[in-house]
Amino acid sequence: MTALDARPETTATLRFPAGFRWGTATAAYQIEGAAAEDGRTPSIWDTFSRIPGKVRNGDTGDIAADHYHRVSEDIALMKRLGVTDYRFSIAWPRVQPTGRGPAVQKGLDFYRGLVDELLASGIRPVATLYHWDLPQELEDAGGWPQRETAQRFGEYAGIVSGALGDRVATWTTLNEPWCAAFLGYGNGVHAPGRTSPLASLRAAHHFNLAHGWAVRELRSRLPAQCEVSLTLNLHAVRPLSDSAADADATRRIDAVGNRIFLDPVFHGRLPEDLVRDTAPVTDWSFVRDGDLEAASAPIDSLGINYYSPTVVAAGSSPAPSPWAGAEEHVRFVPAPGPRTAMDWPVDAEGLYELLTRLRDDLPGVPLVITENGAAYDDYADPSGAVKDPERVAYLRAHLAAVHRAIEAGADVRGYFLWSLLDNFEWAYGYSKRFGIVHVDFATQRRTFKDSAHWYADVIARGGLSS
Ligand code: IFM
User: CATH says 14-464 is which class?
Assistant: First the structure.
């Protein structure tokens, strides 16, 4: 312990329920490296990160945090933290390089080894099947705007769950399909970098379908007690003022940011207002009979990734915009308050708002915070310590908001801190550090930041001091 702000929580007056899952989260492309080893082929992120200007400093995930070769060391870090659960993602191009056909045994063996070592360490593995690394061959065949990609994803889900279903009890189909559809195909700041409103809406639908088909495959292979879930980065959207125009801007973003996934997955329907808003882009005729029924296959919980709220007003957004059908009607307004190194506002109230809204909108659906955390410009000081009091303050405020939401009746079952390690932060490359463990990318040396010591203490006490 080095900083005052990372003092042990002396009492846990904000105690979380017994059995609450305390975890950390990572994603394959962001930490694994070994991009061309053991049969792995390029994903859309390998391709995209090589296009000049797309990723800061020309960074790629070729080596990342070298987790592929440091699994044991990284699990030892988790043991030191005392986490009960670890959320990781499986790289589709490592397991099924062309996105079709049989699996590569070495790819499956890597994840089997990871899972076995987690279990031996008393840490529950939580596997995400898709965290944005589509095999490039499937993108070349049309990517997520094409229906066939959803079918391929269902098959891949079957392969992976067949191989790991005897040892992984918690499964997430997709991570943040909003980002993959709208940043990947809408404004092009993520792979594969396309800028087509139509492609982004088609991709969103095919993500819903892929999710549903994957749920079907998982259910047919997993023991009945396994938990199947989906993770969404829901937008905590607020109007700038009480005006009817700002309320309409809020409704539009809620439709294309949140309900575009929530309604198909939990109610088997498309939001009527979304269909109306997007009429200039599409008539949605790519949605076939039975698709929404498939998308709404029952799941056991909903994962929520939350970082900051979104404030909107009537106006327009600069092109290319990710907000298909809303770009000419909505202006994004910077929220007030302190900001992280991503320039994202620190506002834990947004998380409380989101959780209590879901308590009301989705009664009976258990919720899990599958990501929450913050980037700051951390460095190791001459004594070797990494002092990150802002991150401790951010995490503390957000955990307190989760606690308050639970007291208000939200059924929140766990919290996964993003992220275990500093890693490849997509279009920002290695310039943004979200880890509670510092990674020196030149040496791959790992160092607990003060926030890691603090989180270990919170877990040990089962909560926060008031
Ligand atoms: O690093 C990402 C992660 O891959 C998905 N959710 C948001 C994080 C921070 O930007």
Answer: alpha beta
Average pLDDT over every residue of 1-22: 72
Residue 242 alpha carbon to ligand 1 centre in Å: 32
* 397 CA distance to ligand 1 middle (Å): 19
What are the residue ranges spanned by the domains of the chain?
Answer: 14-464
Task: Give the Cα separation of 60 and 45 in Å (integer).
Answer: 8
Report the alpha-carbon distance of residue 381 to residue 449 in Å, rounded.
11
Q: How many CA atoms lie within 13 A of 150 on its CB side?
A: 24
**Which residue has the CA at smallest separation from atom 4 of ligand 1?**
27
Give me the count of residues in the chain: 466
pLDDT at 1: 39
Which of 57, 77, 150, 52 lies closest to 420, judged by CA? 77
**Share above pLDDT 70 across residues of the chain, in percent, rounded to a whole number:** 97
User: Cα separation of 7 and 384, whole Å?
Assistant: 18
From residue 216, alpha-carbon distances to 102, 158, 228, 280 in Å are 19, 9, 10, 34
DSSP-assigned states of every residue in 295-306: HT---SEEEEE-
Q: What value does the mean pLDDT take over residues 221-225?
A: 97
Q: What is the mean pLDDT of residues 28-48?
A: 98
Residue 13 CB neighbours (<10 A)? 12
Using DSSP's 3-state secondary structure scheme, residue 293 falls into helix
Here the tokens at position 288 are: 């076939």
DSSP codes joined into one string, 72-113: HHHHHHHHHHT-SEEEEE--HHHHSTTSSSSPPHHHHHHHHH
Kindly state the DSSP code that residue 335 receives in the 8-state scheme: P
Q: Which two tokens stand for residue 130?
A: 């898709």
Residues involved in catalysis: 176, 371
Ligand 1 centroid distance, CA of 179 (Å): 9
Look-up of token digits 């056991």: 300
What is the pLDDT, as a whole number, of residue 11?
65
For 366-371, what is the mean pLDDT? 99
Within 6 A (CB) of ligand 1 lie: 27, 30, 176, 305, 371, 418, 425, 434
State residue 466's pLDDT score. 67
Q: Would the pLDDT of 3 be above 80? A: no
